[in-house]
Design brief:
Helices cover about 0% and strands about 55% of the residues. The protein is built from no helices and eleven strands. A hairpin with a 4-residue loop joins β7 and β8. The protein starts with a strand and ends with a strand.
Length: about 120
């Protein structure tokens, strides 16, 4: 069964950096758009960054200039490089992707289980 698996979360001091990774654990045919979302305690899940299969990117205003989303198509992996972290970045970060398990099947949307990022002041 295909699932998305995130890694790289943890505890970091304000001003520090972390890099999150996300990749499918099972065999797939193709991955299209991939994205990172986050949900702070008591908050709504919000879009952080998105990258298309062609490499076009977009960012939430709160992270633009500090975070960078990228992908490695050979590894079918998406990354989120987070620099100059602030306490308000503390949240559970979720990977999201549209993919096809097999040729001929329609695109389906998948979520990862989430990884905790905590930024101390």
């Amino acid at each position: 069964q295909v699932q998305l698996v995130e890694s790289g979360g943890g505890l970091v001091q304000a001003g520090g950096s972390l890099r999150l990774s996300c990749a499918p654990s099972g065999s797939i045919f193709v991955i299209n758009t991939m994205a990172w979302y986050r949900q702070a305690p008591g908050g709504q899940r919000e879009l952080v960054a998105i990258i298309t299969d062609g490499g076009s990117t977009n960012y939430a205003g709160s992270v633009k200039g500090r975070f960078t989303i990228s992908r490695d198509n050979a590894k079918k992996t998406v990354y989120l490089q987070m620099n100059s972290l602030k306490p308000e970045d503390t949240a559970v970060y979720y990977c999201n992707a549209d993919l096809k398990k097999r040729i001929g099947q329609p695109l389906q949307n998948y979520w990862g289980q989430g990884t905790q990022v905590t930024v101390s002041s």
